[in-house]
Amino acid sequence: MINLFLSGGGDKEQTDIIDKEFVKALDLDKPLLYIPIAMQGEIPYEVCYKWIHSVFNPLGINVIEMWTDLEAKSLEDLKKFSSIYIGGGNTFNLLNTLRETGFDKILKEFVDNKGIVYGGSAGAIIFGRDILTSSHMDPNHTNLKTFKGFNYIDNYSVWCHYETSNDSLIKEYVNKYGVSVLALPEEAGIVINGGTLKVIGSSPAYIFRNGDKYVV
User: What stretch of H or E contains 47?
Assistant: First the structure.
């Protein structure tokens, strides 16, 4: 049973619907784990921590623990949390850090064991087939050579912050790599519960496959 909430990014007004859906799924007696490492070098973690409180305190989540060092963590360490929120930023930095610390394996184990995860922007892209859908906006300053994501979305890659002006870039990606794309505007998100995928938000999501574009 997979419990994934993935959003296209945007501010808390844009993600309000998916945020509320996420909170409904949680045990509010447990703290939320927040991982903002995709923002390393871009926005100070103290600012990130204030932001996550501004989003979820009004929705009833009052205890939020932030991890910025993922070294030597274990699945056992995650058991005290209701869920994990992985924030946006640079997708290459995020995946590289997850791999270097070994937290990628722990995160996958957590998801496979029915753990609830919310990924926003970069935090959503890593759950697709590969992360090269972020290369038009994120520079790869790391030594990352393998761009495979966790592939939890039926072999689709995830494109966040989608706008119609991205269509030609997405079709180029689909043609080059032979990979279909799930495109999420900032007002859209998906919920994967078990084998069911549901689109939520105030905007539709889109699929790009074999040169065609479909509304989900």
Answer: helix 45-56
